[in-house]
Fold:
Amino acid sequence: MEVSWLYLIPLLPLAGAAVNGLLGRWLPKAWLYAVALLVVLLPFCIGVFAWWQVAHIEGETAQVRQLVYTWFSVGSLRVDLGLTFDRLSGTLVLVVTGVGFLIHLYSVGYMDEDPGYWRYFAYLNLFVSMMLLLVLSDNLVAMFVGWEGVGLCSYLLIGFWYDDDAKAYAGRKAFIVNRIGDFGFLIGIFVLYLYTGQVSFQALKVAPLSLGVASAAAALLFVGATGKSAQLPLYVWLPDAMAGPTPVSALIHAATMVTAGVYMVARLSFLYVQAPGVMAVVAVIGVLTALIGAVIGTSQTDIKRVLAYSTVSQLGYMFVGVGVGAFAAGTAHLITHAFFKACLFLGSGAVIHGLKGEQDMARMGGLRRLGLKHTAATFFIATVAITGVLPISGFFSKDEILAQALNTRAFDFLTLLPDPGSPRLAFLGPAIYAIGTVTALITSFYMWRCYLLTFEGEYRGPPEVHPHEAPWVMTLPLWVLAALSVVGALIVLPSRQLPFTWEHFTEGVFARPRGGAPLERLPELVAFGIALVVAWAGFAAAWSLYAPGRGLQGDERIARATPRLRRALASALYVDALYDRILVKPLWATARGLWRAADAMIIDGLLVNGSAQLVAAVGSALRRFQNGDVQRYAAVTAVGVLILVYVFLVRG
Amino acid sequence: MVGPLHYLFLGAVLFALGGVGVVVRRNALIVLMSIELMLNAVNLTFLTFSRFPLVKSAPTQAGFLSGHTAVFFVIAVAAAEAAVGLAIVIAVFRSRSSVNVDEFDTLKF
Amino acid sequence: MAETVLFWIFFAGVVGAGAQVVLRRNPIHAAMSLVACFFFLAGVYLLLSAHLIAILQVMVYAGAVMVLFVFVILLLNLKEEELGRERVTVWKGIGALAVAASVGLIVVLALRNAYSGPVRDLAVEQLPTGFGTVKAVGRALYLFSVLPFEVTSLLLTVAIVGSVVVAKGKI
Structure:
């Protein structure tokens, strides 16, 4: 269904960013807040309206579309700025604007005393606009614009307090690592265009692609997703990204931007099902990332870093979902994760705000009884959601993914090597299930560790800091998100029959993987039982080590037992050091070498200075001809005359 | 018989002598005198062609005497030039106590 | 016959005196040689039936210009040691050779009639009457080149004033 008002959704936040960015310094605070909040609320309302329309159209064409304008047309390539609000992108629009609005509201409280608050809201609005563009685009190029745009805003916001070098470098690191991924994304677009001449999703859906081309394009686009969504090996920027203000971590690095990669794969489900080998890679990378993220998370003491690695891990789960062909489950987890992870991050922000900037859990403890009642309660609810000890949203979404992985047949016809006689990869699904379940146990462990260390037990911080609860603008979003974490369970119930579930809702949106309908290797109830047991086991382990009153003894015991492992985890498995050694230092050395050789020596020395010196040298040589001796001039003239006489009279 | 070529040859020799003198001699006065030699060579050439006109050339309005008028003016100009040149030599001699042209080399790099 | 003999005498005189001008170290000697050269040249002019010019050569050139030269030489009063030795540098040699070569080249070409058409070798009797006399040259001057004539007088005035200004110590 074509409409003409869809463009307002990404445009309003952009306008807000422009107003706040250009005039914000001189606007009264209240006006600035009003603008910033309004330009996120209005798109939410428009989104609700559009969502209602889409929900009532049946079938594959459940869409609200608008062709805003033709961006450029070169040769046979025509790229439009087209927006498509369908059941998938529409719901994500609601998530982005809804959670975004809550976080904007929260930021009003959090950033109130910061001198650069106007810049913050401008960047935040810009981010929302770019994210909406990414989600609503109907072709790869416009999506890439949004993709780059959110990357830019991520850089601006991570390095928001740019006076601090470390924070600025964190922003730079995020942007550079993202860039590497973006390069892959771009090549992927080129490959698709080269072989089909199309970039819009509708056209690509029906374009015939060979296995090789589809695999190449899918793999390259996934490289981009690896960067944007912090998967192996390009996840290293996300923990450092915690240098930015906490609401930024909540919005960008938990709820929305990092999920762009998952969204992209889901949107291009029709491409990925044509490349089952790439899907296997996606799922494997996803589960490995999930595992590694969880493992490193157990050793962190900075509360935001715990949540950062948790995000890396949960994103891994989402990629497992879309990798095994369970696109609906993967995107469902995307939505529920947005709720509880944002709640967790905002809660940590309230803690940091209440402790005047303290982020290390070693100096927290007992905060629930010291007054942070709302924060503690919402954090508790969100932790329950993520760990799955009770069947609320996180439980269903995560374990649905694992169940689908167990039962999938997407890899049945894949072989390890191209030779048909080599072992089949049908075992991949169950293997992923096993690793994923272990990861769930570790997830439960580190999340409960985080909660217990922060809110229970005795306060371990300096006595002059008096923890206090956050203002209502901050606690209200916490409660809304906590409520959504609970209620969200309803939509992720794994049932196609129930009309309000996500599975049902996105019936026609995703393509089905080859290989046939999923088997049922384990009965559903058994799988869910295992999941519950695992979650409680993690809780029990955390309780035994970090029960109220024990403080950080748990960490010390682990450190004594496995000192080498502890050290490795504390430095994040030395990955940063490795990258530094094999990539960063050689690049710097090359750049320095080029600077010295090419720039300083050749261009400056040889060409610029050299040409000047050449002119000077020639000049100083030539000036000797003018020595003031007139007789010599006469002699030279005589020689000239001789030459002329010879040329004109002898030679004619 | 003495024909035009003999006179022209004499003029050429005189001109060469004067030219060499200009280039080689250091004394400014000698140089000026060499210039006079060259001018006289030119005069001789003019007069030769006036006396022995080329077959193809038509008489000028002055009836082949244009050579003589040219020489007339050359003599006048040479006199003027000699006067001014000698005045300059005197002026330079006053400040530098020398008439050697290779010592007048301040107009240089 | 007489013409030929006279020509060669005058030729030797001119070339000899001219050479002395270029070769003498003492400027007075050079000036005297130049005067002699002018006299011989006047003789050559007479052989060419350039009567007025010959007289003017003696009167103006030898009589006025050379007198001026001699006066200046006497004014400068160069002592024996102030007269420098000749320094023949490479460039001077090259220049001299170039001059000689250019002139020689033209002479050779002239001998081969490379650029001149046949010349009318008129006998004296065939010249128009009064060729080269004062009257004839005067007519040519005043009738056909009045402007240069008048301008020349301006030129001479300028030259006089200029040389006075330059040569005077203080104005």
Q: What stands out?
A: DSSP finds three helices and no strands in chain B. The mean pLDDT of chain B is 88. Chain B touches chain C through 79 residues (CB under 8 Å).
